[in-house]
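ok, trying the design again with the full structure, not the truncated one.
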């Protein structure tokens, strides 16, 4: 279980929303869902992705964010995203940690390594 002091990163979970403009056209955007304290644990290496057909090479940083369990945090899914430190992180998976049910949630996320 992470100690309280290890939850030292402030992250915002964003959720896709749709609003209607003045012409009654739907516009998709992102809105802040919750802002929480988290522990960030980077994976040991960059994830390198190669798309041979398109001759593209890119690298991504994989991190795991651990947040306290809450009624809102338990609804986080890969359709949401993380806004942290000026970067957008795409959520790949969420799971409860091994510390016990209803204590912490681990969010695995990636971002382009620019």
């Amino acid at each position: 279980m992470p100690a309280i002091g290890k939850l030292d990163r402030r992250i915002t979970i964003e959720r896709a929303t749709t609003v209607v403009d003045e012409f009654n056209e739907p516009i998709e955007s992102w809105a802040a869902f919750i802002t929480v304290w988290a522990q960030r644990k980077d994976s040991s290496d960059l994830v390198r992705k190669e798309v041979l057909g398109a001759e593209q090479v890119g690298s991504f940083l994989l991190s795991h964010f651990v947040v306290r369990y809450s009624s809102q945090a338990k609804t986080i899914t890969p359709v949401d995203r993380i806004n942290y430190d000026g970067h957008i992180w795409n959520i790949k998976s969420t799971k409860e940690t091994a510390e016990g049910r209803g204590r912490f949630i681990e969010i695995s996320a990636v971002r382009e390594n620019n």
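Keeping the full-length input from now on. The mean pLDDT is 86.
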